[in-house]
Amino acid sequence: MRIQTIGFRQRKSIDGPYATPMVNVRMSNSVSNVSPIPEARATVQSLRSSQIREVANAGIGLPNVLPFWFGESDRVTPSFIRDAAMAALADGATFYTHNLGIEPLRAALARYVSGLHGATALDHVAVTSAGVNALMLATQLIVEAGDRVVEVTPLWPNLVEMPRILGAHVETVPLRYGRNGWSLDLDELLAALTPDTRMLMVNSPNNPTGWVMSRDDQRAVLDHCRRHGIWIIADEVYERLYYGAELALNEIGSRVAPSFLDLAARDERVICVNSFSKAWLMTGWRLGWMIAPSALMDDLCKLVEYNTSCAPSFVQRAGIAAVEQGETLIRTLTRDLHASRDHLLHALSRMPDVDVKAPAGAMYLFFSLPGATDSLALCKSLVRDAGLGLAPGSAFGPEGEGFVRWCYACDRTRLNTGLDRLTRFLKAG
Ligand SMILES: Cc1ncc(COP(=O)(O)O)c(C=O)c1O
What we know:
The chain is α/β, with parallel strands linked by helices.
């Protein structure tokens, strides 16, 4: 068998075009176009791999690296939630459930969302296997190959890659960085939302910048999307991690960021995605939900069936405890996160040439460092030379270059050790 390179196939990735050799396989004098290497379809190959992972992988095996690169707290899920899962297991909750989740959890979520954002019936609630699954399901519901999708960046890369998996074309509208931190040019976003746009995906509070979309901007975007029949997928997984002034209060006075659910009717072209991962410290449980028009639910059932079939049943039972008894937890968590944010902000802002601003939400500081013009290379040397694990800004799109992301959802001692390491690194550099 002879293998012959016959040309190069151009693939466009978010990082720019790159070429992949195409090979002919000559077998028994006949030429076929079958590659000798088993490979995924071209669109999947062209997806960007995670630069956060690239940095984390560079740190694996190195002694004593302090990781602040992933978006999760260092606190274990509280015992009232773990106990509920164990009780459910002891009770035999080990079977498939309805595609859209068990009814008591859907009902609990309907009550919870109604308390935060206005009347929401159970038939608008679908339980999913965490936020990332809800986002993919929502994308699969709405987007066809070739569709135009608009997103506000810098952004958690999963949101950019999901529509691309389905062959959609993603246009980005960058937030601008200025004296008051990251902000949206509303006119620029509205101009990008052309009548041929299928869907807007917007994440607020935003990972990585902590930017929060204002109620007025949400209203303007919703009005515009209504006029043109554009779907809005709102990723609101950080809605409870909110420290801004423009706040809504739920029944017991807890904070929540402005949400599209406050403005939109439940049967409009709006899908709001949420998760148990962040506010209830349940990243490893893989439980989330979406609020969507009830008319979508039959089709959503099919997609859930063919993706995961359902979320794990004992995990769903634990979700009921979380959502019904979790307000004290959320209040303590956000108070502590707020204090950690301010502590890190204060310490970073005293370092020479570090530019950092207070974001209104989420659990990250996204700041510029001397030498971060190549943030991936900088983060790799921070891991190697300082034992400090940060996420490179370029992982969140070209607008993020020059910045690094620090997840501050951890205890004070760890934050201080990280700060000492950064100070030493900057002095040495
Ligand atoms: C913006 C954003 N959306 C959604 C998610 C999904 O989280 P999960 O799949 O754990 O619910 C994350 C996780 O980091 C995130 O940062």
